[in-house]
Amino acid sequence: MSIAKRYAEFAGDEVNKALLEFLSNDAFDQYALDLVLDKKIVQLDDQQFEWLLSALADRASSLSSIVLRYHNITDKSLQLLSQQLPLLKSLLTIDVLGCNIAGEAVPDLLNSISSSNVRILILSGNHLDKDVGIRIGEELAYCPLKILEMADCGLTSKGLISIFKHIVSENCQIRKLDISGCEQFTPEQYICEHIEYALQQCPKLERLHLRKVGLRDYGLTRVIEGVTKSPNMKYLDVAANKLSRDAAKIVTPCTRTLETIDLSNNNIDNEGGVTLAKNLIEPGCTIHTLGLTSCNIEEA
C-alpha cells in the first residue's frame, strides 16, 4: 500500500488534501529519504504529524531528515519523535525551526538522541520556557549532537550557564552552537567567563554564534580569550551586539586562528575598520571572511 493511502486510512475524514497530494507524488513515495514539508504547501499540526509518521512506518528506518519549519506542531510532536527514534535508524537531522514548541519535550528528545544517529537539531525560533535551558544543558553532557541551533529561543542566563557548563563533558560532541537572540547577557561578566572556560575546555567546538546577545567589549574580551585557546574554532559570529571600535583590537589575536569573524551591525566605525584592514594583510592571517555590514565604516 502506498504512503498516501496509508495516511488517508489513518486520517479518515480529517485528511489534509495538500498533504495527501504531496504524499501521492511517485518520487516521494518510492525514493525520498528526506521528509521536507514547505508550510506554504502543507501545514501540519500534532495530529496530522502523528498520522504522517504512522503512514511512514515502512520507510522509517531509511529516513535521513525531518524538516518541518514554521508548522503548528508543539512539544507533543517532539515527544512522539522521542518515542519513534529507535525506529528512525538513519535519521541524522531534526529541524523544527519556528514552530510552537515550548521546550518541555526537548530534554526527553535529547535523551533519546543519545542512543540514536541524529547529529543535527534545529530549534531556533521556538520560544522556550524559562527553565528548559537548564535541562537542555544537562542533557548535552551525554549527547552526540554535532550541530545545535537555538537562536531566538529566549534562553535565560541560567540556561546559558548550564549549556556552557555541560558542553565541556568529554561525551559532548558539539561542533556548532548557535544561541543567538537569547536574553541579554546579565550579568555579562559571569556568563562570558563561563563561555571563556567552556571554549578552553571544549576543543571540539568549531563554530559559535552569539548574535544579538547584548555583548559589549569586556564580554568580547573574555570570549576571545577562550577562542584563542580552542584549537578547532574556525567561526565566530558576534554580529548585532553592542561592540565599539575597540572590538577591532580585541579580535586581533583571532585573526591568526579563525577563518570567519562576523562583526556586522556593531559600531566598529572607521578607526576599527583601519585596524582590521591592517590585521588582514599581516603574515599569518587566516581570515577568509570578515563580516562588517552596517558597521558605520565610511567608504574611502
Describe it.
By secondary structure, this protein is α/β, with parallel strands linked by helices. It folds into 2 domains: 1-183, Ribonuclease Inhibitor (Leucine-rich repeat, LRR (right-handed beta-alpha superhelix), Alpha-Beta Horseshoe), CATH 3.80.10; 206-299, Alpha-Beta Horseshoe (Leucine-rich repeat, LRR (right-handed beta-alpha superhelix)). It is built from 12 helices and 10 strands. It has helices spanning 3-11, 17-23, 26-30, 46-55, 75-84, 106-113, 132-140, 157-166, 188-201, 217-227, 247-250, 269-280; strands at 34-36, 65-67, 93-95, 120-122, 147-149, 176-178, 207-209, 235-237, 260-262, 289-291. Strands 1-2-3-4-5-6-7-8-9-10 form a 10-stranded parallel beta sheet, with no helix packed on it. Helix 5 packs parallel to helix 6 (106-113), helix 6 packs parallel to helix 7 (132-140) and helix 8 (157-166) packs parallel to helix 9 (188-201). The longest helix is centred in the middle third of the chain and has 14 residues, at 188-201.
List the keywords.
300 residues, Leucine-rich repeat, LRR (right-handed beta-alpha superhelix), 2 domains, ten-stranded parallel sheet
Determine the N-to-C terminus distance.
Answer: 67 Å
User: What's the Cα radius of gyration?
Assistant: 22 Å
CATH architectural group of the largest domain: Alpha-Beta Horseshoe
The low-pLDDT segments are: none
What structural class do the secondary elements suggest? Answer: alpha/beta
Question: If you consult CATH, what is the topology of the largest domain?
Answer: Leucine-rich repeat, LRR (right-handed beta-alpha superhelix)
How would a textbook summarize the main sheet?
10 strands, parallel
Order of helices and strands: HHHEHEHEHEHEHEHEHEHEHE
Average pLDDT value? 95
Number of strands: 10
Shape: elongated
**Structural domain tally:** 2
Q: Looking at this structure, what is the CATH superfamily of the largest domain?
A: Ribonuclease Inhibitor
Keywords: Leucine-rich repeat, Repeat
Family: Belongs to the PPP1R37 family.
InterPro entries: Leu-rich_rpt (IPR001611), LRR_dom_sf (IPR032675), PP1-Reg/Actin-Interact_Protein (IPR051279)
Pfam families: LRR_6 (PF13516)
